[in-house]
Write a structure and sequence with these properties.
heterodimer; A: 114 residues; globular; B: 116 residues; mainly beta; 6-stranded mixed sheet; 4-stranded antiparallel sheet; 12 strands; 56% strand
């Protein structure tokens, strides 16, 4: 009964490959996010979706394409992976209103591009 | 643009003592929210505590309390009676509104080490 889940937890791949990370939340939240945490532990927003609609795109390269088939799922597809894409990717969700719209994070996906 | 500053890259505390982790912020938005998250070595991001800019009282959640000083634009996290399991990275974050929707802007984090 995990609130926000991500698969896979670890992803090791070669440069140039295409990969996807899946995220699901069972909290009934309207808004979902993707964050990237770099090697220095700095966290930065990449995308946000509200009810399947893209609302935030923080100048992320076109190689990154989020997809939200329904409001409980937000997947991240990455084309032509580069070494600099190595990071931890966190999915998060929040309610539209209430308690400051606190964001709850998934366990993270550790991506290593070789 | 909103900014969060955490000036302590690392902090040490002995078990059972209290510790304060500093966070200052910068915003021109009169309505904002401040959050603290814990990231243990296992890597997950755990929500700890929230403070709204209009909240009259400082937020508390168990052993966590937020020392919110609006005029100084600071939102320090106080952990009372530290435990070994409190050893982790701690991130301060602010809600940044874009067209009515929020994203979180994070500080660089403070690594806390609790010693026996």
């Amino acid at each position: 009964d995990t609130a926000v889940s991500q698969t896979p937890k670890y992803l090791v791949t070669q440069m140039g490959n295409d990969k996807s990370i899946k995220c699901e939340q069972n909290l009934g939240h309207d808004t979902m996010y993707w964050y990237k945490q770099d090697s220095k532990k700095f966290l930065k927003i990449m995308f946000s979706y509200n009810n399947k609609e893209l609302i935030i795109n923080e100048t992320v390269p076109n190689r990154f394409s989020p997809k939200s088939p329904d409001k409980a799922h937000l997947n991240l597809h990455i084309n032509s992976l580069e070494l600099g894409d190595s990071a931890v990717y966190f999915c998060a969700s929040s309610p539209r209103v209430g308690r400051g719209e606190t964001q709850y994070f998934g366990p993270g996906t550790r991506l290593l591009v070789l | 643009a909103q900014k969060i500053t955490q000036t302590q890259p690392g902090m040490f505390v002995q078990e059972k003592e209290a510790v304060t982790l500093d966070c200052t912020y910068d915003t021109s938005d009169p309505s904002y929210g401040l959050f603290w998250y814990k990231q243990p070595s296992s890597g997950e991001m755990i929500f700890l505590i929230y403070q709204g800019s209009y909240d009259q009282q400082n937020a508390t959640e168990g052993r966590y309390s937020l020392n919110f000083q609006k005029a100084r634009k600071s939102a320090n996290l106080v952990i009372s009676a530290s435990q070994l399991g409190d050893s982790a990275m701690y991130f301060c974050a602010m809600r940044d509104q874009i067209s009515g929707f929020q994203k979180l802007v994070f500080g660089t984090g403070t690594r806390l080490l609790v010693s026996p």
